[in-house]
Amino acid sequence: MSKTVSFITENFGKYDPYSIDSYLSIGGFTAIKNALAMSSNDIIEIAKKAVVKGRGGAAYDTGRKWSQAASVPGDNKVVICNADEGEPCTFKDRNVIENDPFRLLEGMVIAGYTVGAQNGYIYLREEYRHLRSLIQNAIDQCMEKGYVGDNIMGSDFSFHIHLYSGAGAYVCGEGSTLIESIEGKSGRPRIKPPFIKECGLFLLPTLVNNVETLAIAAAVLQHGVDEYIKYGTPESPGTKIISLAGNVKNPGAYEIPFGLTLREIIYDIGGGIPDGHNLLLFQLGGASGKIGPASIIDTPYTYADLAKQGLVVGSGGVLVVDDRTRVIDFVKSIQDFFIHESCGKCTPCREGNRQIAKIIDRFVAGNPKPDDLNTAERFANIMSNCAFCGLGETAQSALLTAIKHFPQEFDLEEVAVK
Questions:
Q1: Which of 263, 292, 322 is the C-terminal boundary of a domain?
Q2: What are the tens digits of pLDDT across the range 266-306?
Q3: Are 224 and 253 members of one domain?
Q4: β-strands 119-124, 291-293: how paired?
């Protein structure tokens, strides 16, 4: 457990999340004060120096994203906090909201000030509805104390925050789909261009950031970028909150410095595999993430090192699967999830998921057709290249990497013997 750190999570357990006075007693809103004393360009340069990549899954550079949003002309802009944490095996944003809601609001205000927005919207997933009262209470108290609303902290900057709830659709984690949902429409992705930064919510220039990304922004503005980048590696500085789950003794959300190996995450932080079983595979970044075999467990957890192994950080999920599960059964569980969650807008995703599911079911039953493997790979590659949004593009990540790392599971002669 000593390999974890507390930078983003430093406030966890140190104040009452229902009390703004409790938050102020530990130095709360220092980040907003510091931000208001800077220019927008100053803050953007800090974000760039910190090399914070978006923590919702896409890993888009935050400094670049804020710079692009700030450069879009417009007197009425919007910041959206994406709290639609629907990726399976991902619950780190929930921990931030539960333990440090005021820091999240600080991050939103800082983002609004940086890009020139006047309104912020928190889009909370339906399954987190029990957190609505906590967030709304934090917004109300910030309004009363002058940290949200008109003329924040006596400045000429005004920023109002509004709370919206989703309806339980995984696809609404995608930015444009989330926006459609807030506008009262069916949750389906928009065609791009126009891009969200130019024409987003209510056709206004819009910045969408993940909960963890906004929390990092507040922490960095409070303590300074040098304090943040002392963690991690030169290529992947800083820290990451991961969601560790599956066949480990100590599942949970942990903040780690970039550079720990997957072995350290699973065995030192997670306590290893229970009941004497062996590691079979791990999946990084949620259901849309790729899987890796036990043989590459010493890979450092950085963007570059994982990329060399064909893996991604994604949403920060680390799902551990031991030898009690067959690879093909694991792939089937992922496939069933995406069939349920596809919005059906585009043919590659809608039909591709259904057809691949039939093939996977035949592998599970032990009676695949001779051309099933080639057909599944062909359909999966079509989805990756032609689907309308990220859901369809990544739905077959688990299947394709399972075929790569566990080809014996798809050997037709071996399946026939089983």
A1: 322
A2: 999 999 999 999 999 999 999 999 999 999 999 999 999 99
A3: no
A4: unpaired
Q: Can you say whether residue 246 is alpha, beta or left, with left for phi > 0 and alpha for psi between -120 and 50 degrees?
A: left
Do 112 and 104 touch, CB atoms closer than 8 A?
Answer: no
Contact 93, 318 (CB under 8 A): no
- Cβ atoms 289, 397 nearer than 8 A: yes
- Look at residues 47, 221, 44, 207 and name the one whose alpha carbon lies nearest to residue 119: 207
Please answer whether residues 287 and 334 qualify as being in contact, where contact means their C-beta atoms are separated by less than 8 angstroms.
Answer: yes
What ranges make up the beta strands (E) of 166-238? Answer: 206-210
- CA 8 to CA 245: how far, in whole Å? 20
Taking the alpha carbons at both ends of the chain, their separation in whole angstroms is 41
What is the count of structural domains for the chain? 3
Q: Is the pLDDT of residue 418 over 60?
A: no
The reply to whether 94 and 181 lie within a common domain is yes
Sign of torsion, CA 363 366 369 371? Answer: positive
Residue 13 in domain: no
Cβ 32 vs Cβ 152: under 8 Å: yes
Full DSSP string of 121-136: EEEE-GGGGGGHHHHH
* Contact call for residues 372 and 363 (beta carbons, < 8 A): yes
268 inside domain = yes
SS3 45: helix
Tell me which residue of 263, 316, 298 sits closest to 58, measured CA to CA. Answer: 316
Q: Name the domain boundary from 258, 287, 322.
A: 322
Do 130 and 97 sit in the same domain of this protein? yes
Domain span at residue 396 reads: 327-417
Q: Which residues pair with 208 in a beta bridge?
A: 80
Whole-prediction pTM value? Answer: 0.94
